[in-house]
Amino acid sequence: MFAMPPAPAAMAGNYRSVTMASITIDEKICKGCGLCANACPKKVISISKHRMNANGYFVAEAVNKQNCIGCAFCAIMCPDCAIEVEK
Ligand code: SF4
Ligand code: SF4
Questions:
Q1: Which of 7, 19, 71, 78 has a CA that sits 20 to 30 A from residue 38's CA?
Q2: Which CATH class is domain 29-86?
Q3: What pLDDT is attached to residue 10?
Q4: Protein residue whose Cα sits closest to atom 7 of ligand 1
Q5: CB within 8 A of 70, min separation 6: which ones?
Q6: Where are the alpha helices (DSSP H) in the chain?
């Protein structure tokens, strides 16, 4: 029976492992300004119509987390540093 030889190390280097990026929004300090939502190219973030923090702001929330590409545009745009991006 024919068996495939193992892939050489150089070939293995042609493949990129795919890891999911994710964001964490600190709702306590979010002001609901929407800058992060506007900056996100993948429409991951939106401003909640229901969740309000102790300061009375409707907060940003990740609604399509699975689409996050880890570009960090949201974190860069947030004036209150309320977003952390992990890759
Ligand atoms: S890291 Fe990029 S893709 Fe992910 S939520 Fe932020 S702006 Fe959107
Ligand atoms: S940019 Fe920052 S403060 Fe503004 S909605 Fe997004 S997380 Fe909240």
A1: 19
A2: alpha beta
A3: 45
A4: 40
A5: 21, 22, 85, 86, 87
A6: 9-12, 35-39, 73-77
Between CA 77 and CA 24 the distance in angstroms is 14
Question: Which residue is it, tokens 């004036």?
Answer: 79
- The letter for the amino acid at 12 is A
Residue 73 has pLDDT above 80, yes or no: yes
What is the distance in A from the centroid of ligand 1 to the CA of 15?
Answer: 24
For the residues 6-32, what does the mean pLDDT come to?
75
pLDDT at residue 71, as a whole number: 98
pLDDT band at 20 (very low <50, low <70, confident <90, very high): confident
Mean pLDDT value of segment 24-40: 98
Q: Considering Cα of 66, then 67, then 73, then 79, what sign does the dihedral take?
A: negative
Q: What are phi and psi of 58, to 5 degrees?
A: -70, 125
